[in-house]
Design brief:
Number of helices: 3
Distance between the termini: 50 Å
Largest sheet: 6 strands, mixed
Structural class: alpha+beta
Shape: globular
Strand content: 25-35%
Radius of gyration: 17 Å
C-alpha cells in the first residue's frame, strides 16, 4: 500500500516520504495513479462524511471545460479548510451541515478514489449553495450554439 497515515507522526527509516501532513508514501513504490490528493483527502477526514463535488465533478464530467490542475474540491461534514499538499497540489474541504440522507440518491461510491462522488445535478446545486461564483459562465450548455464559427 503506497499511501498510509502515520500514527506516530514520524517517517520510518527514510523509506517513506511525506505526501501530506501525517500521511506518508512508500518511496519504493510511489503512487503513479494521479489520485494522491483523493487518497490523502479520504485519510485526512476519515472520521467525517466527504464527497467529491463542485469544480472537480463538473470538470471530470465535461460540464466545464477547465481542468483544475493539482486541486480537488470536496464537501465535508468536517470544518472548511484548504490543505496544501506540496508538490501534489491542494485539497479544498467545504463544510456542510446538510443531512447526508437528503443527497444520498445523488452520490455514488468511487472505489478508485476511496470517496463518494456527487452527480452533475448535485454538483451544480452545490455550486449555487456554496456561492461558487464565476463558474456559471464556464458551464457548457447543451442547448447553446456556437455563433462564432
Amino acid at each position: 500500500m503506497p499511501i498510509v497515515r502515520s500514527s506516530t507522526g514520524r517517517s520510518a527509516g527514510g523509506c517513506w516520504s511525506a505526501s501530506v501532513r501525517g500521511i506518508y508514501q512508500y518511496s519504493g513504490s510511489p503512487d503513479t495513479s494521479g489520485l494522491v490528493l483523493f487518497h490523502a483527502a479520504a485519510l485526512l477526514r476519515a472520521r467525517h462524511f466527504n464527497y467529491i463535488s463542485l469544480e472537480t465533478v463538473l470538470s471530470d464530467s465535461g460540464v466545464i471545460s477547465q481542468i483544475p490542475m493539482g486541486w480537488v474540491t470536496l464537501i465535508s461534514t468536517g470544518r472548511s479548510a484548504v490543505v496544501d499538499c506540496g508538490r501534489f497540489g491542494s485539497i479544498d474541504f467545504v463544510h456542510t451541515e446538510r443531512p447526508m440522507a437528503c443527497i444520498m440518491d445523488h452520490l455514488t461510491y468511487d472505489a478508485q478514489r476511496d470517496l463518494f462522488r456527487a452527480d452533475v445535478e448535485l454538483a451544480i446545486a452545490d455550486m449555487a449553495r456554496f456561492r461558487r461564483r464565476g463558474i456559471a459562465d464556464l458551464i457548457q450548455r447543451e442547448d447553446a450554439t456556437d455563433e462564432h464559427l
